[in-house]
Amino acid sequence: MMIEKELLDLGRKVELELKPYFESVDLIREKNFLKVLDAFQSVKLHDSDLNYTSGYGYNDIGREKVESIFAKIFGGADAIVRPQIISGTHAISLTLFGLLKPGDLLVYASGAPYETGEGIIGIRDVPGSLKEFGVHYGEFNFRDGFNEDLIRKARVVVFQRSKGYTFTDSISMDELEKAIKVVKTINPNAIVMVDNCYGEFVEEREPGDVGADIVVGSLIKNAGGGIALTGGYIVGNKDLIQRIAARLTAPGVGKEIGPMLGLTRNILQGIFFAPLVVSNALKGAIFASKIFEDAGFEVKPRYFEQRTDIVQAIKFGRVDMLIKFAQTIQSFSPVDSDAEIESAPLPGYGNKIIMAAGTFVQGSSIELSCDAPIVPPYIGYLQGGIYYEHTKYASLLALQEILKISKK
Ligand SMILES: *Cc1c(COP(=O)(O)O)cnc(C)c1O
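A: This is the predicted complex of the input protein with pyridoxal-5'-phosphate.
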């Protein structure tokens, strides 16, 4: 498939070197598989629970079991897991609007939020934002020191686990545990929320296990295992979940309604597959990290570093290389492999973005995908891969094409 022998040989050599790192990924997968299986058995899931509800979706036992399973896995007492939550951004927005009242202060403790968060918060002027609703906002990065004043005044303190479009380290569960303790010492009443997008099943523990009050993510990333067709999850304390459910549907009705429209089986299969799929994505990311570093590019994380999300950042330093990288990933996809992708403005994002996503589920970034804002120093963010082999060969081909540019 267009990959030259020289690169195939390089791939084999690198793979041997990476064996110990792949083994530690396998070990985490094994533990997460057992955790997931245990959650399924603890709710006594039955074949009949997978049936369809429509309309109001009253008494949907399948939905209730899905939510109990997610609550157990992500370390909370209760959960909302619905196909009516469209994306990670929607899950975050819903959670914040559920928890915050006019006059409250929202604080991001891990620095600037993921780009689509700017619209939710009102950092970019968008109709319907929290700012318009009278919610105040502050941010600091706990790695540079905790802003005690903001923490004391905050109603909700957010940690974003995954780096987003920045070239920094994502927040490991050890680091998060310590940071949450600091926040809770300064303000025991603050609600600690974690944006868990891209982090699920990368470590043995999840944010709910290390003190987060509310954990939020998307089903078209890790937690959907590449199978869920849509959806998001919110896991946390019962009273918080109740408030958020009042915003999802209506006050007084809350979690009692919500048809699953036949997606119960799909969502459950997704979470069941997720530890396996995440482990494949991680191996692919480690492989890409190593070959691009060996070729002289700065990468984050490096192949031997501990990971807490599936995102692999590669700094190209040149716009033509970044675009070639994204285009090659696209050309190596099972869907839309012939699409000629270009950078474009995207709803919810400030910068122009180039996205490679030849995926079965639209926008699914647990499937092999890559996105990058078109700004210097031209960093590509690679993630996903249902098969490790998919990410492996796609990155080999991308490296080959980029080396051709650098020889010109
Ligand atoms: C992807 C992502 C989001 C937004 O999720 P969408 O499903 O794309 O809306 C939010 N936060 C982080 C850290 C993400 O990686």
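The radius of gyration is 21 Å. The chain has a mean pLDDT of 96.
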